[in-house]
Write a structure and sequence with these properties.
The complex is a heterodimer of chains A (112) and B (115). With 112 residues, chain A is mostly beta strands. Chain A has strands at 4-5, 11-14, 19-25, 32-38, 45-50, 54-58, 61-66, 71-76, 85-92, 101-102, 106-111. In chain A, 0% of the residues lie in helices and 53% in strands. In chain A, strands 2, 4, 5, 9, 10 and 11 form a six-stranded mixed beta sheet that branches. The model of chain A has no long low-confidence stretch (mean pLDDT 94). Chain B has strands at 4-7, 10-13, 19-25, 32-38, 45-51, 57-58, 67-73, 76-81, 90-98, 103-106, 110-114. The chains are: A mainly beta (112), B mainly beta (115). The interface between A and B is medium-sized, with 21 and 19 residues.
Amino acid sequence: QKEVEQNSGPLSVPEGAIASLNCTYSDRGSQSFFWYRQYSGKSPELIMSIYSNGDKEDGRFTAQLNKASQYVSLLIRDSQPSDSATYLCAASSTGGGNKLTFGTGTQLKVEL
Amino acid sequence: GAVVSQHPSWVICKSGTSVKIECRSLDFQATTMFWYRQFPKQSLMLMATSNEGSKATYEQGVEKDKFLINHASLTLSTLTVTSAHPEDSSFYICSAGRGANNEQFFGPGTRLTVL
């Protein structure tokens, strides 16, 4: 069974610090990886996509992918209280009909 | 770009009635749309995959006769909850896939309450 695993948290970081969110996946056929942010009571919002090994940066966000270790991470620099949300890691493979397999999410709390 | 809308944003209905939820991709064409359900403090649960012009593919345990999905065009998919009961009360969210990597963009969701 294809699985994506995340630590549920909560992960607490002080304002201005770097938040590091981690995710592992079991399906070696996974080719596309996504990070979504979900505020309480709202739908998920896509914040990063990554498809090849290495780092991908977009503003304060950096996604990292290591296919050999089946590991994906998201770094949030200069964390702000508005970053407090649940972060969902997702993976998809072409053999899976482009369905996303989601992790259960990591709750991030950025404290003043 | 990549905006997905849903309508209605919330609905309250009586037990036994049917409710239709619309999902539209506003600025791109989506060959594939997905329907999810989320209960409070739980993960997203994929209900079905909707492909334009063909029958939807339902996940195991999801009743296709209860949750009717129609994907009539590249920008519109609808979910109809038939004969709704209180246990169907949930947050229903659609997503639309874009591009070769099928990035999924989510609609704002529809909160259904069945009395």
